[in-house]
Write a structure and sequence with these properties.
It is globular, with a radius of gyration of 17 Å. With 230 residues, the protein is mainly β. The protein contains 2 helices and 15 strands. The protein has one domain: YmcC-like fold (Beta Barrel). 6% of the residues lie in helices and 60% in strands. It starts with a helix and ends with a strand.
Length: 230
């Protein structure tokens, strides 16, 4: 199992959004019964899906390039980094960015996934400290896997990467599946830019897990070098 690059990398909010089966949302409790004064963040600013937008990253696999195309009412986010290529189909529905399907290829593996219900990639609005959960099924090459994804906006943090210095949201996402795979990703998202930095740890099971380890794909890091706007 090779989780999708931008699904892992980082992920990705939460005032109430339109509920769908299998998607849940929770927020941090308020202390002393007082009303929260935390600033609500519009996540689309930090996760731009603009047709023709391109990012170039320096990663632990070498140069990684990602770009967005709009087709059939959905957004395709494609990422390439030898020996890994990932394609994700995303849709904005209600108050959420949803992941419908993904496809990943390496030199030795080829995997296609469909998410039922569509996976909550990001709620569109959230406050720092709030979290969200998605539970559902992944149909993988004829097999069905149950998965649970937990995400949280940890804090705002200023970081420096080759592309410059950015004030980012630090996002932590963990995934557990009943095929024995577990993954954790920490991502830094900047407004108007998207993913500035990502760190992913994968613990896959079975033979595919051995291939992932053999190819060095069980740990992945990247930092933004350049962004090209259409």
């Amino acid at each position: 199992m090779i989780p999708p690059l931008l699904y892992l990398i980082l992920l990705s909010t939460l005032s109430p959004f339109r509920a769908e089966s299998g998607i849940m949302q929770s927020s941090m409790p308020h202390s002393g019964g007082s009303q929260s004064t935390a600033r609500t963040i519009n996540l689309p600013d930090h996760f731009p899906l603009t047709n023709g937008l391109r990012w170039k990253y320096d990663s632990s696999l070498g140069e990684t390039v990602s770009w967005v195309t709009f087709t059939g009412g959905d957004f395709l986010v494609i990422s390439e980094s030898s020996p890994l290529k990932v394609r994700q189909r995303l849709r904005i529905a209600g108050d959420a960015v949803l992941l419908l399907e993904s496809e990943s290829k390496t030199l030795l593996t080829h995997e296609r996934r469909t998410y039922r219900p569509p996976m909550l990639r990001l709620p569109l609005r959230i406050e720092p400290g709030q979290s969200w959960t998605w539970e559902g099924k992944e149909e993988v090459d004829g097999e069905t896997i149950s998965s649970r994804v937990n995400g949280v906006i940890e804090k705002e943090e200023k970081i420096k990467v080759p592309a410059g210095e950015f004030l980012c949201l630090k996002v932590k996402v963990t995934t557990i599946s009943d095929d024995g795979t577990a993954s954790s990703s920490t991502q830094w998202l900047a407004p108007g830019v998207g993913i500035v930095k990502g760190v992913v740890e994968i613990k896959p099971g079975g033979f595919t897990g051995f291939i992932v380890w053999l190819l060095g794909l069980d740990h992945f890091e990247l930092e933004l070098e350049e962004i090209t706007r259409p």
